[in-house]
């Protein structure tokens, strides 16, 4: 339900202090019964009884007012407006009735008419609570007519990595019946600390005349190492395309572009397209499927130029304060040099629990299986990798401004990675502890 509709539905709970312009005369018994049903929020029964009374006393203002309320609550908005108009014939200045008229026109999408009725009531200097709620309605109408929306997140992070280069478990590597000793920076695990900054900016263009919106997202990621400066990374990505939204699904199609620099030198660029479909099966179950295709251009090693295809699906189950999600992914990379081509399958299972004090805890388990398409150029065997990940963490919302959709979130997490390969060079373990501070706007 949109905020505008939510405001309209909840507005009936306000007991405005306006006096009725015309007192009820002697009315049929069905009127009293219908009014009682209204008080009990039995709206269909209220409408039935009040309509019976209306057939007997069609010109009574009090009866028409109550009939309009019942019609509104049963989504008969046109009938509600006709009933209120009959009241205004008797008393053109009945402000309570104009408020109800505004609500009904709002439900029919006649925002300009609703705005005019709200302003007419404001001009009479109504009670403070009424005035505040009308201002909220008007603000919601203006927001619903807005075409351009800007949002984003900024995340500052600090991480501790005990094996930043993903060095093998041992510097003694086996090749068949032979063994050799690794030398250099990647021979043994090296720990380091990393400072990172991630900025995501989103622009959404919404045009009510068309059944779609247009979304553009820009992402910037920078990682600075305390000691191992040759691992420093700068990433810039851009995605843009139409978004189609209905009550139970969201579908987007985007063009993609990205660039990666390592130690301030050009490393890789990519361009392609992606599409995802999110379906809301119920309030507790939703699912997302996505496809992405990218052409990669590697500036340091042309043999790594590749076409990458990625398919993914993620069902999500939400119940009370619990959230369980499963990500399934199938990836294929077809590189210029076949030794760099691979097929990959991965899954990640994650559980989130929301706590009462604006905190949450989470835990996840992941598994990735990668098979390369050609024998390794040095080891002369087909490389086969298995990677297991175990993640756990806690987050806490430090501050929130719901009106402006702003928040400040702190998150602490730890990830243990165990990589096993049929080539010792790619068998390693690492632990990464990360502290993030994220502001959303």
How would you explain this protein's 3D organization?
The protein has 441 residues and is an alpha+beta fold. The chain has two domains: 3-144, Tetratricopeptide repeat domain (Serine Threonine Protein Phosphatase 5, Tetratricopeptide repeat, Alpha Horseshoe); 148-440, Porin (Beta Barrel). The chain is 23% helix and 49% strand. The protein contains eight helices and 16 strands. The chain has helices at 3-10, 29-39, 43-56, 61-73, 77-90, 95-107, 111-122, 128-144, and strands at 148-161, 172-175, 178-181, 192-206, 212-225, 233-245, 249-262, 265-280, 285-298, 306-319, 322-335, 342-354, 359-375, 382-401, 406-421, 428-440. A hairpin with a 4-residue loop joins β14 (382-401) and β15. It is elongated. The two termini are 22 Å apart. Residues 3-25 have low confidence and may be disordered.
């Amino acid at each position: 339900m949109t905020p505008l509709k939510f405001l309209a539905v909840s507005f009936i709970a306000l007991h405005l202090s306006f006096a009725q312009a015309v007192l009820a005369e002697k009315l049929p018994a069905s009127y009293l019964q219908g009014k009682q049903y209204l008080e009990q929020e039995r709206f269909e029964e209220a409408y039935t009884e009040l309509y019976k009374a209306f057939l007997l006393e069609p010109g009574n203002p009090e009866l028409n007012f109550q009939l309009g309320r019942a019609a509104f609550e049963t989504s008969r908005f046109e009938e509600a407006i006709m009933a209120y108009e009959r009241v205004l014939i008797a008393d053109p200045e009945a402000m309570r009735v104009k408020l109800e008229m505004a609500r009904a026109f709002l439900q029919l999408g006649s925002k300009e008419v609703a705005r005019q009725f709200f302003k007419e009531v404001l001009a009479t200097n109504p009670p403070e609570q009424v005035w505040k709620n009308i201002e909220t309605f008007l603000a919601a109408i203006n927001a619903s007519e807005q075409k351009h929306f800007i949002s984003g997140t900024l995340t500052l992070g600090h991480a501790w990595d005990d094996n930043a280069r993903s060095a093998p478990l041992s510097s003694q590597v086996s090749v068949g019946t032979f063994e050799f000793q690794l030398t250099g920076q990647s021979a043994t695990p090296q720990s380091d600390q990393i400072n990172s900054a991630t900025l995501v900016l989103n622009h959404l263009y919404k045009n009510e005349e068309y059944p779609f919106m247009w979304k553009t997202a820009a992402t910037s990621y920078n990682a600075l190492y305390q000691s191992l400066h040759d691992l420093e990374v700068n990433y810039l990505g851009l995605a843009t395309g139409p978004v189609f939204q209905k009550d139970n699904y969201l579908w987007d199609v985007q063009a993609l572009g990205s660039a990666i620099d390592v130690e301030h030198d050009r490393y890789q660029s990519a361009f392609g397209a992606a599409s995802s479909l999110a379906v809301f099966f119920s309030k507790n179950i939703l699912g997302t499927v996505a496809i992405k295709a990218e052409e990669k251009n590697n500036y340091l090693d042309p043999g790594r130029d590749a076409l990458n295809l990625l398919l993914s699906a993620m069902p999500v189950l939400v119940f009370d304060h619990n959230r369980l999600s499963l990500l399934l992914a199938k990836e294929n990379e077809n590189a210029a040099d076949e030794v760099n081509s691979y097929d990959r399958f991965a899954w990640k299972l994650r559980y989130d629990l929301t706590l009462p004090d604006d905190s949450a805890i989470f835990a996840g388990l992941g598994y990735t299986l990668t098979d390369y398409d050609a024998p390794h150029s040095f080891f002369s065997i087909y490389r086969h990798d298995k990677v297991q990940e175990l993640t756990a963490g806690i987050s806490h919302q430090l501050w929130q401004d719901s009106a402006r959709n702003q928040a400040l979130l702190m998150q602490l997490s730890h990830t243990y990675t165990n990589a096993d390969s049929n080539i010792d060079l790619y068998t390693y373990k690492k632990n990464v502890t990360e502290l993030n501070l994220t502001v959303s706007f």
